[in-house]
Amino acid sequence: MRILLTNDDGISARGIQALVNELNTIAEIYLIAPDHERSGTGHSITVFDPIKVVPANIPGIKRGWIVGGTPVDCVKLAISRLIEEKIDLVVSGINHGSNLGTDVLYSGTVSAAAEGIIMGSPSISVSLNTYRNDADFSYAALVTRRVLTSVMKAGIDKNTLLNINIPMLAPDEIKGIKITRLGTRNYNNLFEERHDPRGNTYYWLGGRVLKEKQHDDSDVYAVEQGYISITPIHLDLTNYSLMEKYHELNRNHLQAIVRREET
């Protein structure tokens, strides 16, 4: 099996090194990661600037690259240009901090896995629910190996990424695994106004997660209760429940817009 590892925390992050140490026992590892942290970049790509790529010599991998671009740039480059062999699985992480609920829309970690899906490769994103500087990623890497081994054996869906979030608890305190849906995740966005030495105004975004009521089958609730959360995420954002309503509107009103009639 060939696994492509990437992340948004950068090539030097301990989370991705933990994955190398764990997954190179079961697969050939190709590693490609940004040259520095790219958290919060979402599904952005680099189109107006060149993307610098430097080979990375890292123990435990077959080949590696350091990229002056986004996590999505990394996956696109690796699969379309840098790797000749077929990649069996993209694994993005382990992120230093959770990616729960609507966070997945901002997350470079989840977006890198989403790009794997777009390019035809089954994909998994993994996050550890802590920002502690002394966090140990080894158990999260072990969980990742066990989960991906199981889902690959059962048959993983190439059109759906699996988003895994692991509580920062001792292994014997983890209550189990729950298959979840995306919960709600909002922040009290705080834009602090500052001034540079020349007097120009700029803003620095901060804020904290708002405490909100969660459904008991959501990823946020599961992690809060001490469970590992696995959320299947499909990239089709269509609201199918509204399609019939707008089909009816189209039949009765919208077609008149095209004919320039009064509605």
Keywords:
two-stranded antiparallel sheet; nine-stranded mixed β-sheet; Stationary-phase Survival Protein Sure Homolog, Chain: A; 263 residues; 25% strand; alpha/beta
Secondary-structure blueprint:
Blueprint: E1 2-6, H1 14-23, E2 28-34, E3 53-55, E4 63-67, H2 71-82, E5 89-96, H3 108-118, E6 123-129, H4 138-154, E7 160-167, E8 176-179, E9 190-195, E10 201-206, H5 219-224, E11 227-234, H6 240-258
Parallel strand pairs: 1-2, 1-5, 2-4, 5-6, 6-7, 8-11
Antiparallel strand pairs: 3-4, 7-11, 9-10
Helix pairs in contact: 1-4, 2-3
Walkthrough of the structure:
With 263 residues, the protein is α/β, with parallel strands linked by helices. The chain has a single domain, classed as Survival protein SurE-like phosphatase/nucleotidase (Stationary-phase Survival Protein Sure Homolog, Chain: A). It is 29% helix and 25% strand. The chain contains six helices and eleven strands. It has helices at residues 14-23, 71-82, 108-118, 138-154, 219-224, 240-258, and strands spanning 2-6, 28-34, 53-55, 63-67, 89-96, 123-129, 160-167, 176-179, 190-195, 201-206, 227-234. The strands form two sheets. It has a nine-stranded mixed β-sheet with strand order 3-4-2-1-5-6-7-11-8, sandwiched between helices. Strands 9-10 form a two-stranded antiparallel ribbon. The longest helix is centred in the last third of the chain and has 19 residues, at 240-258. The radius of gyration is 21 Å and the shape is globular. The mean pLDDT is 93.
